[in-house]
Specification:
It is a single chain. This protein is an alpha+beta fold and 167 residues long. It has one domain. 32% of the residues lie in helices and 11% in strands. It has helices at 20-27, 34-38, 42-59, 95-110, 145-151, and strands spanning 60-62, 65-66, 77-78, 124-127, 130-133, 155-157. It has a two-stranded antiparallel ribbon. A two-stranded antiparallel sheet has the order 2-3. Helix 3 (42-59) crosses helix 4 (95-110). The radius of gyration is 18 Å and the shape is globular.
């Protein structure tokens, strides 16, 4: 069964922050990586974009608040300002997020960013005279650095702790 992207801003059944077409236009700007993306089937591209959207919403505590309770995704949001201090339109998906979703989708197409690192749990591996020391800080992150650089003005990494809500 083919996946169908629903990129309706604020939609109750939306599942993606960008369309297949818009993602292609954004990714086409990078001549070094576009051929890999273009070679994928539309269904695989859709799967990557939908997964990227889900992971962005799971991995980021976005600033502001959802525009409506009924919307399926975290964006559009209200009370959000861009780095220049201007209000972000709360009725659309902002370009930075659509582009970040496309870039993240491309990365998901290239590698499984959810797979556990093969050296997880080890600090050192020694076999005879070969001694490998493993940096714990050198683990692959779910969200690539380039994607974080596109979204970091609008949220922080989710830490999954209880939040204090003031009424």
């Amino acid at each position: 069964m083919a996946l169908v992207i629903d990129a309706t801003a604020g939609g109750a059944s939306s599942n993606c922050y960008t369309t297949l077409s818009d993602a292609g236009v954004f990714l086409e700007q990078n001549i070094h990586t576009y051929a890999e993306w273009d070679a994928l089937s539309d269904n695989d591209k859709s799967a990557c974009l939908i997964m990227a959207t889900r992971l962005l919403d799971e991995q980021v505590d976005w600033i502001g608040s959802k525009k409506t309770e009924a919307q399926a995704l975290a964006w559009p949001r209200q009370f959000v300002y861009n780095p220049e201090g201007y209000s972000v339109d709360d009725s659309t998906i902002p370009d930075f997020l659509a582009n970040a979703t496309a870039e993240f989708g491309r990365h998901l197409a290239l590698e499984n960013r959810l797979a556990e690192n093969a050296t997880l749990g080890f600090s050192k591996i020694q076999v005879s005279s070969i001694d490998l020391r493993i940096k714990r800080t050198d683990r692959k992150k779910i969200i690539p650095k380039v994607v974080w650089s596109m979204i970091n003005a609008y949220g922080v990494k989710a830490n999954y702790t209880n939040r204090l809500v003031r009424c």
